[in-house]
Design a protein that fits this description.
Low-confidence stretches: 316-322, 465-479
Strand content: 5-15%
Number of domains: 3
Number of helices: 20
Shape: flat
Distance between the termini: 60 Å
Largest sheet: 5 strands, antiparallel
Number of strands: 14
Strand order of the largest sheet: 8-7-6-5-11
Mean pLDDT: 85
Helix content: 40-55%
Radius of gyration: 31 Å
């Protein structure tokens, strides 16, 4: 009742964020799953709530009796309720005459029952029909929704045969993690802590699943049991999982009383589906996008505010070396000196865009981009030099983190300016693919060359670089205030392996790897104490091929999950420090 004051329905398109932004409705109408026009027509009628008597008659031709269904093999049932799916699975499993085997999940730390991805104890028999509930990121042998049958069980080893391909495969346990994320108060770094784990075969019994669970899956043949359909669109979802009518088997006949599609959704689609207007809308929105893109790209006020904040928060008075003091002020002064010119430049771009002077707009952006990139690179050099000198100081972790954030902001602005011409020109030409790898590579080469030169300079300056003024800390006899991260580091220095540390501390391996990655980043741990050299080099080689600014998630995906996040972050930190 309370929500109805703000939303006309519970459908996503009523969200205020979407309504306020006037999103364009584009319907993807190319069908990949089905090719039979007759079946496609029936499905479209179901979806649009205009099902005919003829449609129902065609569908009900595929009804067969329970006795006939019992003779079918390698086929899945889609039903409306969980209890009906469970009942079918248990009945079919009981009917299998082979010996029952039970496989328990391996649990570590905190992993509440509500998070269990599969049953904690899976009962299997040779001959059981199962379905994978996860993608195989390594060998690509299975995917979420892939059907198979259990062929052989020996102790803890289970062999299955994949449906359709009949490929034999030995099941492997998969691991799910319960992660907690915390922001460190001093450095403001986001730290990932794995607090629990769940290991089990990524499967479930699959003589039957619910229609809801079947969404996104495709079947060549299936038994459809929707006689008790209770939700809008449920019959459509069930039938549209099939590639063709030839694979349809109905356990119960379909009647019009169970077929429904929410009228509000139908009305929304009809009122917004205007393909004849898309071209004009697209042109208008492209103009709007370019205007916003250029306005944001050539606006440096946020960058100036960020630098001012660090200057005010930390100051540079703590450095005894006078040459280090004016660095941030110098960057601010350089950026502020361009503000009047920048505002004038942005007005010129807007005028050219409004006049639809495409060639003039592109030429002006090119010249402006070259000018501002030169300015930003000069400021980037100052900041990078300041960063390298600061790294030689003691107890400057927070300040160093802030400088690193500013470096990222400057790099991001360089990237935006770099891409402004490319994006604008590509959109105006009607190109629908944008490839930035060459731009990213060029920028990365230039940055690395600058860093290399700066590091040589700083090596000469280190003796006179000035030290951060700090008060001498008094020795305290208070209780041990070592962090969990410090304790892990001590175990490593005492010669323990990652696995031994995890066992000793009653933590999962990924948590220990996260601690050690942090230690490598701070220069407190030798990466080769806990990772083989060949592994480090393998990760480095893949990381080098990724665009500048790629995250550990990008690297994880590129390596298809071969190594954990802790290992990847450790190598990334090692590579950066190197």
């Amino acid at each position: 009742e309370m929500l109805s004051r703000y939303y006309h329905s519970f459908w996503f398109y009523e969200a205020k964020a979407l309504l306020d932004n006037q999103l364009v409705y584009i319907e993807l109408d190319k069908i990949f799953r089905q090719t039979d026009n007759g079946f496609i027509c029936i499905l479209n009628n179901l979806r649009n709530n205009v099902t005919t008597t003829e449609d129902i008659e065609v569908l009900n031709q595929h009804y067969i009796t329970s006795d006939e269904i019992s003779s079918l093999s390698e086929i899945i049932t889609l039903t409306t309720h969980n209890n009906k799916a469970d009942e079918i699975n248990q009945r079919e499993l009981f009917a299998v005459k082979s010996t029952a085997h039970f496989f328990d999940a391996h649990l570590e730390g905190e992993f509440p029952e509500s998070m269990y991805p599969v049953l904690p104890t899976i009962e299997l028999k040779e001959g059981a029909q199962i379905m994978f509930v996860r993608n195989d990121n390594e060998s690509k042998m299975y995917f979420n929704g892939k059907l198979a049958s259990v062929k052989e069980i020996k102790g803890d080893d289970v062999w299955v045969e994949m449906a359709e391909s009949h490929t034999r495969y030995k099941l492997k346990r998969e691991r799910w993690e319960n992660k907690r994320y915390m922001v460190q108060e001093d450095s403001k770094e986001l730290e990932e802590d794995v607090i629990g784990g769940f290991e089990q075969f990524p499967i479930k019994l699959a003589w039957a699943i619910t229609v809801h669970k079947s969404q996104g899956l495709t079947f060549d043949k299936a038994i459809i049991d929707v006689g008790q359909a209770f939700a809008d669109g449920q019959v459509y979802v069930a039938l549209s999982r099939l590639r063709s009518l030839e694979g349809l088997v109905l356990r119960t006949r379909i009647n019009t009383s169970v077929i429904s599609t929410d009228q509000q959704v139908v009305a929304f689609v009809k009122s917004n589906h205007r393909p004849d207007q898309l071209s004009e809308v697209m042109k208008s929105r492209q103009q709007q996008f370019i205007r916003l893109l250029l306005d944001k790209t050539f606006d440096f006020t946020t960058l100036i505010k960020d630098i001012r904040y660090v200057q005010k928060e930390q100051g540079e008075e703590g450095f005894s070396e006078k040459s280090m003091k004016p660095m941030l002020a110098q960057i601010i002064e350089a950026l502020e000196a361009e503000q009047i010119n920048t505002e004038r430049f942005r007005r010129q771009l807007t005028e050219l865009l409004n006049a639809n002077n495409q060639s003039g707009l592109v030429e002006r952006i090119r010249k402006g981009s070259d000018y501002y990139k030169n300015q930003l690179w000069q400021n980037s050099k100052l900041l990078l030099h300041h960063l390298e000198v600061t790294r030689q100081q003691k107890r400057v972790k927070i300040y160093l983190t802030q400088l690193t954030d500013l470096d990222q902001s400057l790099s991001k602005k360089l990237e935006e300016v770099d891409k402004a011409v490319f994006l604008t020109e590509s959109i105006l030409k009607g190109e629908d693919k944008f490839e930035f790898s060459a731009l990213n590579k060029e920028r990365s080469i230039q940055r690395n060359a600058i860093l290399s030169e700066i590091r040589k300079e700083v090596e000469k300056e280190i003796p006179t670089a000035g030290k951060k003024k700090v008060r001498k800390e008094r020795k305290s006899k208070k209780e041990d205030k070592r962090t969990t991260y410090d304790i892990t580091l001590e175990f490593l220095n005492n010669g323990l392996t990652v696995e031994q540390i995890a066992k000793e501390r009653d933590l999962v391996v990924s948590t220990i790897e996260t601690h050690l990655a942090k230690a490598v980043a701070e220069g407190r741990a030798d990466i080769f104490k806990f990772m083989p050299e060949e592994t480090v080099m393998e990760i480095i080689n893949v990381h080098r091929q990724l665009p500048e600014g790629s995250t550990s998630k990008d690297l994880f995906d590129a390596m298809k999950g071969k190594f954990g996040y802790g290992q990847l972050r450790a190598v990334m930190a090692y590579s950066k420090n190197k």
